[in-house]
Protein 1
Amino acid sequence: MNPNATIDEILNFKGSAVWSIAPNATVLSALKLMAEKNVGALVVIEGEKLVGILTERDYARKVVLKGLASKDTPVKAILSDVVIHVPPTHSVEDCMRLMTEHRVRHLPVVEAGKILGIISIGDLVNWIISAQNSTIHQLQTYITGYPG
């Protein structure tokens, strides 16, 4: 694994499944989908257009803390409509910088208006750890002269 990888390489490795929901769906249906798919965010799509992202953080801050009911609240009422997204050519480092600067944990990967996948901070951390382990193994093999 390359520590200087592009997001495209990560999507090829992890898969590019994107779970989405419509803005008029209820927050409860979004939460059920997130639980079923074991994800922390859904892209919100109207037609074929990306209109926002809904995260567990949005739910906690905009529904639970305000005493709203998940079954009555539409996704469009709580989604983050300013979506920070990246092209597949962005590097892991660039994405980590963006996530830190904007305090987000999920980045949709978009090219020519089409959503290609979504990257989480966990995906990036796992990639970096694997790349470091690979580098350490290569160095040990080089130094000792054997792959053990």
Protein 2
Amino acid sequence: MALDPKFVDIKVGDKASLSKTVTEHDVYTFAGLSMDFNPVHVNAEFAKNSMFKQRIAHGMISASYISAVLGTTLPGINTIYLGQELSFRAPVFIGDTITATVEVIEKIEAKNRLIFKTTATNQDGKVVTEGKATVMKK
């Protein structure tokens, strides 16, 4: 897929993805940017007593990878993110490699809108985040 595909060239069924390993630095940086210092994300001693028994990454980190695919690959630059429905299905741990995938499921020609199925999976193929995104493409 081209870096900036034209709306007319995007088809239902088109897919794109990217992968990134979540690091401790990512979690602390995200906490600082988002102001979400929930100790289950940033405090290992606290997290030992949580239901996950270890620190977990913020759910919105995996959601931000979906945003990255939409804004850089499909549909790429000149995309306006209009909405996102999300369900967090499983925890993301530091060291997990997350693959965010978007797939065009609907094209609304009259408004230059695209609807995407959005999925983030870990290195084992387990779905950690899923939903549906709506974007406008120039």
Protein 3
Amino acid sequence: MIATIYRRFIPQLLHIIILPISFFVFMLIYTPSGIMEFLGHEWFGVHLTIMSSIILLSVCVSRILYYFIPMRLNYTLYVFWCFGEIIFSSFFVALYLWLVLDKPMPYFDMLTTSFKYLFLTLTISYAILTLSIRVYDYHNRISENMDTAVRRMRFYDNQHNLKLVLFPTAILYIQAEENYVNINYIENDRVKEFVLRSSMKALDEICQDHGLVRCHRSFYINPARIKVLRKDKDGIMYAELDADDVRTIPVSKTYYRILSDVL
């Protein structure tokens, strides 16, 4: 889930903008004990502005790397990523202060001090951002699922004749077979199959618009109907559905990540 959320541009942009601003505002308003004397009263605002700019650039580099480098993070690993982001910013903030401030202080002592202030001021901002984005995404997904559930899927054949109308929640899976597709669905608690003269490519848009996910070159599957994903002794992945007397659906390595992200 979190891997999908943070692949989006807006969550990354929010972190890049809000983290340095929150640091600047917190330090300016609350001035934690000793920070004013440490930076100096006369140049306090200047140092604070430059430190905030360093945080902005550091977070920007980190978020760009996360955005473009393929990674799968759960919430535990994401916490470590944020912690590493604070350490990364602290290195450059400490370097700036060590070079500019006229203090007989070893660099690593300056790093410890910088990390302390950054950790204390940014942790709350990280927590608020993460919770806010998670709540927004949760409500957005519920809204999308509700909209999708009430809209019917209309299946047309190669001649553009309407052949079948179903609620997305009724569909189990769709299988391509030569010049036809087999649409397997539930009706009156019974599994039924409808053979439609069409191609899988022609159904790509309607399937994606209604929440079905491609799990194999020849299969679209309804993720809401998946009971379990399992791997057999040969290492082949299958999806078991929540309906009786329904075949297991193969899941190829190409589409496994996409499917697992929506479960």
